[in-house]
Automatic annotation (TrEMBL):
<dbReference type="GO" id="GO:0008236">
    <property type="term" value="F:serine-type peptidase activity"/>
</dbReference>
<dbReference type="InterPro" id="IPR005151">
    <property type="entry name" value="Tail-specific_protease"/>
</dbReference>
<dbReference type="Pfam" id="PF03572">
    <property type="entry name" value="Peptidase_S41"/>
</dbReference>
<dbReference type="GO" id="GO:0004175">
    <property type="term" value="F:endopeptidase activity"/>
</dbReference>
<protein>
    <recommendedName>
        <fullName>Tail specific protease domain-containing protein</fullName>
    </recommendedName>
</protein>
<dbReference type="GO" id="GO:0030288">
    <property type="term" value="C:outer membrane-bounded periplasmic space"/>
</dbReference>
<dbReference type="InterPro" id="IPR029045">
    <property type="entry name" value="ClpP/crotonase-like_dom_sf"/>
</dbReference>
<feature type="domain" description="Tail specific protease">
    <location>
        <begin position="89"/>
        <end position="307"/>
    </location>
</feature>
<dbReference type="GO" id="GO:0007165">
    <property type="term" value="P:signal transduction"/>
</dbReference>
<dbReference type="GO" id="GO:0006508">
    <property type="term" value="P:proteolysis"/>
</dbReference>
Length: 323
């Protein structure tokens, strides 16, 4: 699951060539190691002196900053969280553009009224960091939910199958009208400290820290207390799992499908001097009960198991279920 500070987004263009030119391969890798040592959820289990001795020596043999990327990726692998990554500056530049600018199809939600009384909508993965696209993502979701709500459905089906994650902020903003609490999901760091993600009128917060601005007013759902079924499969992962966890324990909700993928870690982005991004796992997903999903690969278990991945099989299970 990725979250990014507003300051980081707005300051991407503020680094000067002078600052970057002062970096050597060794100092660059040293800064990356420092960020990992300070922020990794597994930092207490890492032999940092050995890491520095081995990889700073390797960095001293590199001729350019870019030649250090494989070194940094090797160190990230040593963290053992299977979720920390390094993104090159050109990848980040692409993430900041609109989907249409890079020729990628927009992740619009799919919706329908099944059997004329079951409101169905998807929550799609969204991987970019473009503010206009985030706004469009949320507004389109809200518009479709309002239309479905007018049909007075007897239940809701929110489909997170194949949602492999990306940016949690627009997803949380989209589902917030369905949730019965502000503190629906959060993160536990390596010290056991807990902070919740919250969607407010002026933005998305992690604890008291604002991490996203989506200036779209929340909607009111007339039928929000009707049964809600959350669909999952093995591809539901990362931010998709944070969405699932946000519903876990809500009285009118059942999760239908199979265990999610199990990338239930909270990642934070840190910008390096050349505008590459170091994505570090800084915490573990928790639900509203503060239960931590620590085991990599275990995922979130369903209330109703479905062995196939066909929507019709999910619908059949829903029709047979009772709250």
């Amino acid at each position: 699951m990725k979250r990014i500070l507003l300051f980081t987004l707005f300051s991407l263009s503020l680094f000067t060539g002078k600052i970057y030119s002062q970096e050597t391969p060794t100092s660059y890798v040293g800064k990356a190691i420092q960020l990992m040592e300070q922020n990794s959820v597994n930092k207490k289990s890492i032999d940092w002196p050995a890491i520095k001795e081995t990889y700073l020596k390797q960095a001293s043999e590199a001729k350019t900053i870019r030649e250090t990327y494989p070194i940094i990726r090797t160190i990230l692998g040593k963290l053992g969280d299977q979720h920390s990554k390094l993104y090159e500056p050109e990848v980040i530049e692409a993430y900041l553009k609109r989907f249409k600018e890079v020729g990628v199809e927009f992740p619009y939600p799919k919706d329908s009224l099944i059997d004329r009384n079951m409101a169905y909508i998807t929550v799609s993965a969204i991987g970019n960091m473009n503010q206009d696209d985030w706004n469009e993502y949320v507004q389109t979701f809200f518009d479709k939910v309002k239309k479905l709500d007018q049909a007075n459905p007897k239940l809701w089906i929110i489909d997170l199958r194949d949602n492999e994650g990306g940016m949690f902020s627009p997803m949380l903003k989209s589902i917030r009208p369905f949730l019965d609490t502000d503190n629906a999901s959060g993160s536990m760091d390596n010290s056991g400290a807990i902070s919740f993600f919250m969607s407010k009128n002026d933005g998305i917060y992690f604890g008291k820290q604002k991490i996203g601005a989506i200036p779209i007013s929340d909607i009111k759902i007339t039928n929000k207390n009707k049964p809600i079924y959350i669909l999952t499969n093995k591809k539901t992962s990362s931010s998709g799992e944070f969405v699932v966890a946000s519903f876990k324990g809500q009285k009118n909700v059942k999760i239908v499908g199979c265990n999610t993928q199990g990338l239930t870690s909270d990642n934070s982005e840190f910008k390096l001097p050349d505008n590459a991004f170091l994505v570090i796992t800084t915490g573990t997903l928790i639900d509203r009960t503060k239960y931590p999903y620590k085991e990599i690969g275990k995922g979130i278990s369903p209330d109703i198991e479905v062995k196939s991945d066909q929507l019709n099989d999910y619908i059949s299970k829903i029709k047979d279920s009772k709250f």
